[in-house]
Design brief:
- With 374 residues, the protein is α+β, with helices and mostly antiparallel strands.
- 41% of the residues lie in helices and 21% in strands.
- The protein has three domains: 33 residues; 173 residues, no CATH class; 111 residues, Sandwich (Immunoglobulin-like).
- Strand 3 and strand 4 form a beta hairpin.
- The termini are far apart.
């Protein structure tokens, strides 16, 4: 059929073009054509403009949003966008925080990437070009996997009654090192340390504090980058490097990773020998290892006054987990002695240097320094 000189095919093609324009508007069509974005007839380009933010102000807001409907991913992202909306206005006025809701629970409850870590990468990508964003994201991911969380500062904010949401002001929560950026690994680790279930209110508060911690770390990294003084600190842990020698892309079981496999896959190599040496300890205690310095083995004594789940692991000087000596096992009241043979979780001898043994039993924690000499 012809209409005003147009074939039916041409008419439909032109109609579809008009429909696209009506739906997307000038901004949408311009975005499809390139990287420029319009808001209120003003032109913006990606990366979006940025001004230095106060990390501790972002902490409190991220914690608040997490507990008030936006959960971890959208809550952390929203605290960042909201601060820039106040400082800059457009284009941040047009960004809905809710677009990051998918990241809650490790991605709609799938337990994959931690929502707060996910949001951190999104914030960095919003204001940092592609060439530079990777190293900043790597830094934040590495920090999240190796830091004792919630941080002391996050707990202190509660003790100082700074949080504006929740019911745990005045309470310091147990801390744990996730060893991973995966939501399920991080939660399982902390629940084991804190002796809590995933549905407990303390666990929800823990994730709110970590949402604030991730917001702070993200802002600190971006502030440093835009000030021209960002210096990356993250180094792929030796454990992960060793994993990839067997499981990298050119060998068995192709994999790509920057973190320890142990939080998800366990320790298949068995690096410890343990014996009970006393049944009636008076207090929680971790004694210095002996001998120290040592080569090749050393022994670590610890005491638990009540039945407790115990996690005892060895870390290198960069905070990377080298070996797990006790993996959240239940111990009756008693004093125990564990031997570490100077090997990592793959049964390989580690290099000489300083290592740290860290024990968690209930809400109690201790760390000792060990010196391996060869």
């Amino acid at each position: 059929m012809e209409k005003n000189g147009l074939s039916r095919k041409e008419f439909l093609a032109n109609s579809s073009k008009f429909a696209v324009g009506a739906v997307t508007g000038i901004a949408g069509l311009n975005t499809l054509a390139g990287t420029k974005i319009f808001a209120n007839n003003e032109e913006y380009t990606w990366p979006f403009p940025y001004e230095t933010l106060d990390p501790e102000e972002i902490r409190i807001r991220a914690h608040h949003l997490k507990l008030n409907g936006l959960e971890c991913c959208a809550g952390m992202f929203g605290s960042f966008v909201e601060a820039l909306k106040t400082k800059i206005g457009d284009p941040y006025n047009a960004i809905p925080y809710e677009l990051m809701l998918y990241g809650r629970g490790g991605g709609a409850g799938w337990g994959s990437l931690c929502g707060a870590v996910n949001a951190s990468a999104a914030c960095i990508s919003l204001v940092v070009n592609k060439a530079d964003s990777g190293i900043l994201i790597m830094e934040v991911y590495g920090w999240a996997a190796s830091e004792l969380l919630p941080t002391d500062i996050a707990n202190q904010a509660a003790l100082d009654n700074k949080y504006t949401a929740g019911s745990f002001n005045g309470v310091a929560l147990p801390q744990s090192i996730a060893g991973s950026v995966m939501c399920h690994a991080s939660l399982a680790n902390w629940c084991g340390v804190a002796d809590k279930k995933i549905g407990d209110p303390e666990r929800k508060e823990r994730c709110a504090r970590i949402t604030g911690d991730m917001a702070v770390k993200t802002v600190e990294v971006i502030n440093a980058y835009h000030a021209g003084n960002f210096s990356p600190q993250f180094v792929t842990p030796e454990y992960a490097q060793q994993c990839l020698t067997c499981h990298g892309s050119s060998m068995l079981f192709n994999a790509r990773s920057q973190e320890s496999c142990e939080p998800c896959h366990g320790d298949p190599h068995g690096t410890t020998a343990l014996e009970r040496i006393d049944e009636l300890p008076k207090a929680f205690e971790m004694k210095p290892n002996y001998p120290n310095p040592f080569n090749p083995t050393t022994r670590i004594q610890f005491s638990v006054p009540n039945e407790s789940k115990v996690h005892l692991a060895v870390y290198d000087i960069m905070g990377g987990k080298i070996a797990t000596l006790v993996d959240h096992d239940s111990f009756k009241s008693g004093s125990y002695e564990v031997e570490w043979n100077g090997q990592n979780s793959f049964g390989e001898k580690v290099t000489s240097g300083i290592y740290f043994a860290r024990i968690e039993a209930g809400n109690m924690q201790r760390v000792i320094k060990m010196n391996l000499m060869k």
